[in-house]
């Protein structure tokens, strides 16, 4: 770890985890996460208002915990990065407001960064600098995309995406049908280990010869699994939960890995990065490894804790922005719940500065913690 690499704090509040990470260049120094997932569990999904309130309560203590864990002072930071989108608007706003307040108070540059690009960039903390271009399969609760990133700070190109449900959403919905609670991914992953992935032949969406090669569809699979379970219940038969979990999971990861490997081959990229909460899935990791090896592709997947939402990923992308001299964001930075994946960060207009006091005074009244 070189002392001249940028020291960056990253804040993530796009969904239900309040994440604060600190990195120096590509080295992870702290990864503090406070989750409100248990509070949402009884509603069967994330309740935006509850998430925002939990972020507000957790924000300052989590920042303090991260600084302590990293053993650095806020004054030594070279920048503050924050997820400015995509995500839940109210939840994002808490992180963005906090980041602005810290950036202004400390006189540090602010970087509003993209949540999806952060899920990719985090792998630098585990496996070193990303190759350029990087092929990334991004699979989370809100997104499933294949992305080609020649430069993760400035050039991210979508090759395909889900046309209906995201992969994580499908896990969460099937878990609900099986009464397994929320979030569904981890519990299906666990149960599937004891089930037979070949027990039930569930459909593989969008894999026909005339289908878009890099798009995904999981809603047909979801309906098919739900109907299968309903039929069993209607017949008074016991539902073989482990076999259903394993067969459903196999259908999802079969399509994800098949299309990702194909994209690498078509684009002549010899490595694949998998990121997002669903990348924590043990079967996805194993099958991707198997298929990549067979195709001569190097697989990069961060450890599970760095796959689900966290602040370290935001800090990782922020540090890359600093290292590449990308323009910081303005203090007018706002949360953008539908920030496109093609915008890795939200650059400011060069004429505003963190020390433009009158200007900032206005922002602090209107936006900070309001
Ligand atoms: O990236 P993430 O933490 O939040 C979003 O940005 O959406 O992803 C959360 C999603 C949830 O749908 C959750 O069920 C899924 O990731 N997930 C998993 C696993 N762990 C989390 N899905 C499958 N297997 C897992 N082990
Ligand atoms: Zn995420």
UniProtKB/TrEMBL annotation:
Q: Does the keyword Zinc-finger apply?
A: no
Positions binding Fe cation in this chain are 115, 119, 309
Give the E.C. number(s): 2.3.1.234
Where's the Gcp-like domain?
A: 28-315
Output the Gene Ontology terms for molecular function.
Answer: tRNA N(6)-L-threonylcarbamoyladenine synthase activity
Binding positions (substrate): 138-142, 172, 185, 189, 281
Gene3D superfamilies documented for this protein: 3.30.420.40
Which note does the record give on the cofactor? Answer: Binds 1 Fe(2+) ion per subunit.
One protein family per Pfam? TsaD
CDD domains from the entry?
Answer: ASKHA_NBD_TsaD_bac
Keywords tagged on the record: Acyltransferase, Cytoplasm, Iron, Metal-binding, Transferase, tRNA processing
Provide the reaction this enzyme catalyses.
Answer: L-threonylcarbamoyladenylate + adenosine(37) in tRNA = N(6)-L-threonylcarbamoyladenosine(37) in tRNA + AMP + H(+)
Q: Where in the cell is it found?
A: Cytoplasm
PANTHER family hit by this protein: TRNA N6-ADENOSINE THREONYLCARBAMOYLTRANSFERASE, TRNA N6-ADENOSINE THREONYLCARBAMOYLTRANSFERASE, MITOCHONDRIAL
Under NCBIfam families, the record lists: gcp_kae1, T6A_TsaD_YgjD
Annotated family: Belongs to the KAE1 / TsaD family.
This chain belongs to the protein called tRNA N6-adenosine threonylcarbamoyltransferase
